[in-house]
Amino acid sequence: MEAGSNYWYGLDATQAALFVFDHSKDLAQLGYINVAPALSEPASDTPEFTPDLLYSAKLRLTGPQTVVRGQHVDLMIQLSYPQIDYWSLPHTNAVIESSLDGGTWSTVATATNAGATGGSGVQVSVTPLVPTLYRAVVEGDWENAGATSDVITVRPVTSTSLSIHASASTVRRGHRVLYSGVIRPNMANGTHVVVEIRRSGSTTWKALATRHTFSSHHWSYSYLQGTRARGTYYVRARYAGNSRYVASKSASVKLVIR
């Protein structure tokens, strides 16, 4: 066996293959070079190197499915090499690629030395303006295998806000209180707004009614106090959100029933 740089070379027992070892990695076999081709094949001037024992890579990309439009989102890259001990991990870079259709991909960010983390993860920030596909990619070399993560989709959504106003803060049984407000941004008529109530000292909100917006973004609810016990309550409005808009809640207003 003969040494060269960080690598050792030696013929096998049949003198037909030259094996390559890396003595910096406990003589891990990296591959072999055929030096005695089969008789049926013509001799070659250049021996063929066959990497039969590349170090495999595991690559994972995770992140939220939605982000408020205009804000950045953090994606987590986890790259590990299970066959390599921690002190010998390669300082491999991973890149984040994006695509709108899954056909054409372009690099949008780089995670430097992702391989040296041992799979603990590296965060990379991106700012999608439209629904975007993302994946992580690591290029292989003659010693370490490449890898591509699963694809994730991040959809930008629009933030919303709700307001609430009450016609009275104190009411007697049998009387009404009118609650009203607006939801922004301006949404189509018929958007659902849930009016909720909780008693002072409780953390549980209960639905009073579901109202539909009118005049684009206004809502209202006339609450008739009938059998609810006397005491102090709080009322708020809530919007559940959808694939385009973020859920939101209004501030709460105080209601005293006498």
Q: Can you describe what's shown?
A:
The chain is mainly beta and 258 residues long. It is elongated, with a radius of gyration of 32 Å. The protein has no helices and 24 strands. The protein folds into three domains: 2-50, no CATH class; 58-157, SoxY domain (Immunoglobulin-like), CATH 2.60.40; 161-257, Immunoglobulins (Immunoglobulin-like, Sandwich), CATH 2.60.40. The model is unreliable at 1-40 and 46-52 (pLDDT under 50). Strands 7, 9, 10, 12, 13 and 14 form a six-stranded mixed β-sheet that branches. Strands 17, 19, 20, 22, 23 and 24 form a six-stranded mixed β-sheet that branches. A five-stranded antiparallel β-sheet has the order 1-2-3-4-5, with no helix packed on it. The protein has strands at 2-4, 7-11, 17-22, 28-34, 49-50, 58-62, 66-68, 73-80, 94-99, 106-111, 122-126, 132-138, 147-148, 152-157, 161-162, 165-166, 170-171, 176-184, 192-199, 206-212, 218-224, 231-239, 248-249, 253-257.
